[in-house]
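Cross-check.
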Amino acid sequence: HKVLKRGPLDSACRAVAWRPDGKHIACGIGGDPENATRDGTIMILEAESLDTLFEDRKAKKWITDVKYTVDGKMLGIASMDGMVYIYDSDKFNILKFDNFTNKSLLS
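Predicted model, tokenized:
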């Protein structure tokens, strides 16, 4: 494997997803014992430049998974505190958030 591009992150990135159209890379931050203050942060990077387009920290613990929908319009984020967050992947606003145990998340 060959590294094509490298960008600086100030914390451990536990989960990564590439938007299907190739425009953005989502990084879920957390689990770095030396920088726990960043746990629960989501970063959206511009894929070409790796510049940060958006950063938010709603979760109280580290991010465990990030996934884009097939059409790339939404981004789902799961965190170790039991929460799921659904973001609009163009405007970066939260569409819905709830606890994993709430069965109405997708209704």
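The chain has no helices and eight strands. The chain has a mean pLDDT of 87. Passed to J.P. for a second look.
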